[in-house]
């Protein structure tokens, strides 16, 4: 259980995190979303006691993390895959960490095998690792102490599609085991297949803390793509039902304000052949963009 | 009877300082650069000393009788020459600094502090380990230098045993120069946290600034004598006050003062290294 209460961090005139309050419960994968510069990393670092808050509290299982003499059995964290010394082998890196926390060395081999870095890779110097391999090592580090709480900062960066799939499965499994899994990302699309709870922040402030389903419902304009040889007739039928229909090409329509199920039903009723009926999966992304548009720190083409 | 839950088995084991020491030992010995730095440093120091002895041994037939009478001072000077002391200071201060700065510059420090939130205990372990390793290293380098230089001078029958008055002080002072300067490097590294700047700072503080301070006035002499390199010079100058060719300064350094300088630098540096990292954001 992660509890953040009125958490604030100021650097001079800049406020990185402003009176942030939220909880992350065990048994779920909770996504921590926000555009670049929203304060996600700052929040995670305050949770881990690496930087001191200007105000408010951040606790893990009821205690500030810095009060723990040793950390790995309480919280596993991957902040930045680059937070290793390139001159050491993966195994030496993990062995030193394991030893400092009285974790048996056999656990080092276990986690290396779990992340797919056993054998020759474990003996190679980390400096020669690809970003994906470093991410795997970072995940191995987080798993080392078999902790009840896990935090990952942008863990999917640099992973290949197989790696992404594996990480998603791993997060779900860790949550199913009753652990608290807190995963930050600046991409909604990364979260929609992974997280079931969301904490969304922008410019250091809380925007939303709810389930993915609730969050998706915020997407005001749900779009359905329909392909039919009889576009004109379908347009008339759907428009009569109150839908907004925009032709995409001569066989494809973009329909808003009507569910895919209802469109199918109407087409069946009027004996119109449908070749494709696709609810737009980007609705979550759209909801995210819509919500954070006002709070994005750096906008492309920004004319300020 | 209610079944008892196995809470004891789930509780994490009590934290031990020895685990932190062992972890720091793994870190130190798993870096190739450690061996390179220690190895080349040791070779350079021993080679410089051996060369000083070789030069004196080869010049010996040309020494006049008064110089031959004072040959013991020269033999003790060759046992650990000024140049070697400078190399040793640079090498150990850099290695000491890198044990701290290396973690900051790579970002490893965040992983380390996440594993061990008790930063003071962690730094205390680092300081303890570096002190131990550097003391052994200094003893090996100083001992090997003494044995080799005296063996070379023995070719002229002028080598000294370790039991010769002052010989042990030369070896011990030179050996302890290693941990004292390594700790100073760690302290500066913990304060500065940036590789290149730390290297410049250690060189300036340990070697450059001490040479600029005069011992002409009482207070500047006190500052000068409180520098590790000058303390080492005083401790290894066995001829001090006996050599008819050297003027004793107006405000002379004392052997006791020099030992205190060593101890004070070690202690203050250790405290700075432990305290400096405790409250700062990483």
From TrEMBL, chain B:
It comes from the Bacteria. Keywords: Membrane, Transmembrane, Transmembrane helix. The chain crosses the membrane at residues 35-53, 85-106, 127-148, 168-189, 196-213, 257-277. This is ABC transporter permease. The lineage of its organism: Bacteria, Bacillati, Actinomycetota, Actinomycetes, Kitasatosporales.
């Amino acid at each position: 259980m992660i509890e953040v209460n009125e958490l604030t961090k100021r650097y001079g005139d800049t406020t990185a995190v402003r009176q942030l309050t939220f909880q992350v419960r065990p048994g779920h994968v909770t996504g921590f979303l926000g555009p670049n510069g929203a304060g996600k990393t700052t929040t995670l670092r305050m949770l881990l006691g690496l930087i001191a808050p200007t105000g408010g509290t951040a606790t893990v299982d009821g205690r500030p993390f810095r009060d723990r003499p040793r950390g790995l059995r309480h919280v596993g964290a991957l902040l930045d895959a680059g937070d290793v010394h390139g001159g050491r082998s993966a195994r030496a890196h993990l062995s030193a960490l394991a030893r400092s926390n009285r974790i048996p060395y056999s656990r080092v081999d276990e986690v290396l095998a779990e992340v797919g870095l056993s054998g020759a890779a474990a003996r190679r110097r980390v400096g020669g690792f690809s970003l994906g391999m470093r991410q795997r090592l970072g995940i191995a580090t987080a798993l080392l102490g078999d902790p009840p709480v896990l935090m990952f900062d942008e863990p999917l960066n640099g992973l290949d599609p197989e790696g992404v799939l594996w990480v998603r499965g791993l997060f779900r499994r860790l949550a199913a085991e009753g652990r608290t899994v807190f995963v930050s990302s600046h991409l909604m699309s990364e979260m929609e297949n992974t997280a079931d709870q969301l904490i969304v922040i922008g410019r250091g402030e809380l925007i939303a803390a709810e389930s993915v389903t609730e969050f998706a419902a915020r997407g005001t304009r749900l779009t359905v793509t329909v392909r039919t040889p009889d576009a004109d007739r379908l347009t008339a039928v759907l428009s009569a039902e109150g839908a907004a229909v925009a032709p995409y090409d001569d066989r494809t329509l973009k329909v808003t304000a009507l569910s895919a199920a209802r469109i199918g039903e109407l087409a069946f009723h009027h004996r119109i052949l449908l070749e494709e009926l696709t609810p737009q999966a980007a609705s979550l992304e759209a909801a995210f963009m819509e919500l954070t548009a006002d709070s994005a720190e750096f906008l492309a083409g920004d004319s300020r | 009877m209610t079944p008892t839950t196995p809470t004891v088995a789930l509780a994490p084991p009590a934290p031990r300082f020895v685990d932190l020491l062992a972890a720091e030992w793994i870190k130190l010995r798993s870096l190739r650069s450690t061996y390179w730095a220690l190895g080349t440093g040791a070779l350079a120091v021993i080679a410089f000393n051996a060369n000083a002895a070789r030069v004196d041994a080869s010049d010996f037939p040309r020494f006049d009788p008064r110089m031959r009478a004072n040959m013991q001072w020269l033999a003790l000077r060759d046992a650990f020459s000024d140049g070697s002391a400078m190399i040793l200071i640079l090498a150990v201060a850099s290695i000491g600094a890198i044990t701290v700065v290396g973690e900051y510059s790579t970002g490893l420090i965040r992983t380390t502090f996440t594993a061990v939130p008790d930063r003071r205990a962690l730094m205390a372990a680092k300081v303890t380990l570096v002190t131990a390793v550097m003391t052994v290293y200094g003893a090996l380098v100083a001992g090997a230098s003494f044995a080799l230089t005296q063996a070379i001078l023995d070719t002229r029958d002028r080598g000294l045993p370790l039991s010769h008055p002052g010989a042990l002080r030369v070896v011990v002072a030179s050996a302890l120069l290693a941990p004292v300067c390594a700790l100073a490097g760690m302290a500066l590294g913990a304060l500065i946290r940036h590789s290149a700047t730390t290297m410049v700072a250690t060189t300036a503080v340990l070697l450059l600034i001490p040479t600029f301070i005069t011992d002409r006035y009482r207070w500047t002499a006190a500052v000068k004598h409180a520098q590790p390199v000058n303390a080492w010079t005083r401790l290894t100058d066995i001829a001090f006050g006996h050599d008819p060719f050297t003027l004793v300064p107006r405000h002379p350094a004392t052997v006791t003062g020099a030992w205190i300088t060593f101890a004070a630098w070690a202690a203050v540096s250790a405290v700075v290294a432990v305290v400096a990292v405790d409250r700062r954001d990483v």
